[in-house]
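FIELD: query
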Amino acid sequence: MKWVKRFGIVMLSLPIALPVVWALYEIFGMYINHITTKEQTNTLRTNLESEISDIEIISVYSETGNTSGTGNHVECLSSITFSTEMRETEIEECLSEYYVFDGWNYYLNKTDDGYYIIYINTSAPFADNIEGH
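FIELD: result
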């Protein structure tokens, strides 16, 4: 008779326990995604500073979420605006050991002001997190 009582308590607590577990999992995923974006941005900055000797960082931006606006997925976006005397092709060549510039997820643009902006956009570890909806 004790096992029936225990089974009943477990069954009655499931409607509360399952949403709590799901919410904790989603919060954990958001935390890991944001840490990944921060690490990606820091790595990008380190790679730029190690490969370009005359670099001057103007601004650093990162974002975690559905950056493309298509679908329900989470991405890690890192963007750094910088100045250097190097040409665009030289910069891409210097960074080719770290990144493959494909024009979509990894690309480099020169602004009208003469600055360069490098974008890195990768899928997050918890890509199907609630943050991407």
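FIELD: remark
The beta strands are 56-65, 75-83, 106-110, 116-123.
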